[in-house]
Amino acid sequence: MAMPPTPSRPWAELQHDLLVAIMTRVGAPDLLSGGAPRACSSWRAAARDPVAWRRVDLRDWAALTSGRRAAGPGPSSSRVPVQAALAGILDMAATLAEGRIEAVLLPEFADEDHLLFLAERCPNLHYFSLPSTCMTYDLFCKAIGELHSLKGMAVDESLINYDVLFHVHQCCPDFVELKVSALYVDEEMASVICNSLPQLKKLEIPSSDMPATAIIKFLDCLEELEYLDISGYETSAISSTVLEKASRLKVFLWNSKFELGEFVDCSNCGEHNINPGEPCKCMMEHKVMDWLAGATQAS
């Protein structure tokens, strides 16, 4: 006897709070187009809810500008300089969020003027990512002076000097998270970070060449540190001393590659292999899952 078909309900009948929770997980291009192309009114309303705009990811600028053009009439990135176009989108985001944006991830060409705009429109900003490698210290510090609720930031190594970071420490009492993009971090740079931001709990410096002395400096001087990510290099400065000092951390991510990409020590499962031709248990399980996924797709 055939079972009666299960009655289906339209997506439009989802509760508004649930739709908003979905919108918080989509990118800014989809939010700007109303949640999705040709979305129903309930989805468009959810995409305009201030809660959906508390975290704004603008790093994918190409998708963002094409999504804005698809959303309707407005300045095209081909006619408006990217700096002005970004300012316009930030203004729109701040308006939709009713000034309550908590995190903004900016594209590579963003500068201190965009950060100043955020400081004026969103003084309760908790986190920003500003990858620009050319920054004016005075304007950057002026923006920081308005962001008293700031808890973290991701910046280029050009901003890692004592005066700038100490200014962050003075203006932002809750600042505990720092991510740095740097090719090389020596003990001197590590000392600057430790001395100016002694209350750091989370520090990320991925894909950077770093000697053991710099790593030990972080572990010895940052007494409140809980999370340290120094993963991504091809050669490792991890020693038994480093591992012992890092054992107090909740999370420690470090390099797990050796020369041609073979695993020696894995910071995820802790396995150690003398023979680099033998992958660790973590990698074996990963390869098995990949194989199973491939077999499933093939069937």
From TrEMBL:
Transmembrane segments: none annotated. It comes from the Eukaryota. InterPro entries: F-box-like_dom_sf, LRR_dom_sf. This is F-box domain-containing protein. It comes from Urochloa decumbens.
